[in-house]
Amino acid sequence: MRRITFDLDVLRTFVTGVDLGSFARAADRLGRSTSAVSAQLKKLEEQLGMPVLRKEGRGMVTTSAGEALLGYARRLLELNDEAATAVRGAELAGSVRLGMQEDFGEHTLTEVLGRFARVHPKLRIEARVARNADLMAQMAAGRLDLALAWNDAAVPSP
């Protein structure tokens, strides 16, 4: 079986088209013509030897192969963008005091902050997990720079 080396530009077009629900909108977003986007999708399907999209009504939906590719494409693009940011030296430095509810802390904290820390190793993030009332009190007291909480009330400036 021959190895396939995916073109990240083609994968970005594929993901953008699926995300926007339209490859014409993807062409606009990416600054390409619709014919260029069509050519990229054709190239992708030729590389795979199978369709990644099929017509449904007036639109296009992913095939089972396209759906499988979509998850990998997102991961490849994320890693590519992370590497590009790190290599370019877009460095943040200093510290941020972040507070969040347990809901956020349990489900997203480790993954999101881990990726962020790899891209910005000179930025120190101090994360605190607490209830809304405690987070609001810490914000009001100036002990947090940012809080992710469920609260409609404005927090007074310290």
From TrEMBL:
InterPro entries per the UniProt record, alphabetical: LTTR (IPR050176), LysR_HTH_N (IPR000847), LysR_subst-bd (IPR005119), WH-like_DNA-bd_sf (IPR036388), WH_DNA-bd_sf (IPR036390)
HTH lysR-type domain sequence ranges: 6-63
Keyword DNA-binding: yes
Keyword Cell wall biogenesis/degradation: no
PROSITE patterns: HTH_LYSR
Short name of any one Pfam family annotated for the protein: LysR_substrate
GO molecular function annotation: DNA binding; DNA-binding transcription factor activity
Keyword set, alphabetical order: DNA-binding, Transcription, Transcription regulation
Family: Belongs to the LysR transcriptional regulatory family.
Entry protein name: LysR family transcriptional regulator
Species in which this protein is naturally found: Duganella vulcania
